[in-house]
Amino acid sequence: MVPITPAAVEGYLRAHAPARDAVLREMEARARREKIPIVGPLVGTLLFQFVSLIRARRIFELGSAIGYSTIWLARAVGPRGRVFYTEGNPDRVREAEGYLRRAKVRDRVTLLSGDALTSFRRTTGAFDAVFNDVDKDGYPAVWKAAAPRIRPGGLFLCDNTLWSGTVADPRCRDPWTRAIRRMNDAVAKDRRYVASILPLRDGLTAAWRKP
Q1: CA nearest neighbour of 96 among 112, 117, 80
Q2: Potential cystine with 130: which of 39, 68, 146, 153 (Cβ 3.0-4.6 Å)?
Q3: What is the pLDDT of residues 87-144, one digit of tens each?
């Protein structure tokens, strides 16, 4: 991933981000060292702000890895909220559970092991917010499944929607870039939603469902 913002700007933004606790800082260091894909502190902060602003209490996260973004979401929903975590790698699920316990949010999170979209379809009910961060070729299917199940006034949030800027390069035709473009087009055309793609880190889509 190549960040959208210049390195100097990225550094400036990080320098002005809120302080994180020891658990999040440890996860960030591990992600850098082992190249584990996490959203990082800038997007994590924004996720926390978004779901706090709409007073979300029920969130589904598709693609959760070691649970970094899950912690941000779980802290935002509060002690009576619920975040559904999904991950296909059982080892990652166990690692995430350890981090969630140390972050004191384990009781707010339902851990679902296996294909994220399959888990989403098996989980009944509507959601205040859905956060999508699965493999990029799955983006169009996630949007199609999630869009009707977000309550009015809720949010669809999606990471990596600029994909190092390749979405804007017509010469780039790899399958993941094409899939992200298809989802971006579908979100922009859906009259139920008002959406923005924010040029933060690798692009974050925030689509608000109109009441």
Answers
A1: 112
A2: 146
A3: 999 999 999 999 999 999 999 999 999 999 999 999 999 999 999 999 999 999 999 9
